[in-house]
Design brief:
about 180 residues, mainly beta, 3-stranded antiparallel β-sheet, 3 helices, about 15% helix
Length: about 180
Amino acid sequence: MAIAPSPDPEAFRRLMGRWATGVSVVTARDGPVDAGLTVNALLSVSLHPPAVLVSLTHDVDTLPVIDRSGRFAVSFLAADQRRLSERFAQTSAPGEKFRGVGVHRGPQGTALLDASLGALECRVSSRVPVFDHVLFVGEVEYQEVGREGLPLVFFRAGYGEADGPDRVRLPSPRP
């Protein structure tokens, strides 16, 4: 039996780009230090108890902050919050990403982004290293419903854009 070659990572990335996802910012706090990053690898894993899973690459600066604190929060971005997504996707010094960004604190002190569609504050219940990522399952300890609006969507390596009050236009295929 012939063994099939491993999938090419770039081809795999392009294929997964056909899966539309919402965009969120995951934050954590360790003492006075806030950390955060843009994440689209998020899913609900349980209703009883409420729990979510986030997937982070092993080399992001937010990961050790989550490890030390045992907590993280997730803010769901609205279609008009693309700049926040881009800001939190950048590598910068601790706290720099938050300079000038409106936040409020969950009951455990984790930063929740103002004007998001909603947010969760979670206690880590499982940490699972998987290849070049770490999966964190968080039990939801606090939830808030934010403003009404369209979600920020990521598809084919680009952001969707609001197209009126109830529609999102997705990026066109690239040649």
